[in-house]
């Protein structure tokens, strides 16, 4: 009974379910785990293992070197493509600027031509207006002269009437 009591945990059974044991994982490397290979004499095994690892190192180094060379060539190719695209883009931009400048010059020339045309039209309009004003002034002068002559006639008529009235008044 004592033994069973001592082997029982002191903590509550409910707490045990909440706690979990942590498992330790450890990496096994080639040094800790021996490889299974056919039995050889101790002298041959050491040389083969060293030669085998040296061969693997050379193989991986050559693989890495080839991979680096291929990636370098690919990057060089991408750089050349970028330079080509940059050159094409700069040519397109230059052409667009040239077209824009040409368009501005055409607009300026059209504006100048339209200004010249509008000035000529304005001069023509001014000449037409001046001609009309001259005609209106001539007509006004003619009407004023007619008015003057009719006023003079009216004045003569009044003078005759006044003479006639005064003459009649004197005779009476």
TrEMBL record:
<dbReference type="GO" id="GO:0015485">
    <property type="term" value="F:cholesterol binding"/>
</dbReference>
<dbReference type="GO" id="GO:0140268">
    <property type="term" value="C:endoplasmic reticulum-plasma membrane contact site"/>
</dbReference>
<protein>
    <submittedName>
        <fullName>GRAM domain containing 1C</fullName>
    </submittedName>
</protein>
<feature type="compositionally biased region" description="Basic and acidic residues">
    <location>
        <begin position="48"/>
        <end position="58"/>
    </location>
</feature>
<feature type="transmembrane region" description="Helical">
    <location>
        <begin position="66"/>
        <end position="87"/>
    </location>
</feature>
<dbReference type="InterPro" id="IPR051482">
    <property type="entry name" value="Cholesterol_transport"/>
</dbReference>
<dbReference type="GO" id="GO:0005886">
    <property type="term" value="C:plasma membrane"/>
</dbReference>
<dbReference type="GO" id="GO:0120020">
    <property type="term" value="F:cholesterol transfer activity"/>
</dbReference>
<keyword id="KW-0812">Transmembrane</keyword>
<keyword id="KW-1133">Transmembrane helix</keyword>
<dbReference type="GO" id="GO:0005789">
    <property type="term" value="C:endoplasmic reticulum membrane"/>
</dbReference>
<feature type="region of interest" description="Disordered">
    <location>
        <begin position="1"/>
        <end position="58"/>
    </location>
</feature>
<dbReference type="GO" id="GO:0032366">
    <property type="term" value="P:intracellular sterol transport"/>
</dbReference>
<keyword id="KW-0472">Membrane</keyword>
């Amino acid at each position: 009974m004592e033994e069973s009591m001592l082997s029982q945990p002191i903590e509550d059974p409910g707490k045990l379910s909440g706690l979990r044991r942590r498992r330790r994982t450890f990496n096994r490397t080639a040094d800790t785990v021996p490889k299974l290979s056919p039995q050889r004499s101790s002298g041959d095994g050491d040389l083969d293992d060293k030669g085998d690892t040296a061969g693997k190192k050379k193989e991986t180094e050559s693989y890495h070197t080839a991979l680096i060379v291929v990636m370098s060539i690919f990057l060089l190719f991408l750089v050349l493509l970028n330079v080509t695209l940059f050159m094409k883009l700069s040519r397109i931009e230059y052409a667009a600027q040239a077209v824009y400048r040409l368009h501005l010059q055409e607009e300026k020339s059209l504006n100048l031509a339209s200004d010249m045309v509008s000035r000529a039209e304005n001069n023509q309009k001014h000449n037409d207006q001046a001609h009309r004003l001259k005609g209106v002034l001539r007509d006004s002068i003619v009407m004023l002269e007619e008015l003057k002559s009719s006023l003079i006639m009216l004045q003569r008529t009044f003078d005759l009437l006044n003479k006639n009235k005064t003459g009649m008044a004197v005779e009476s």
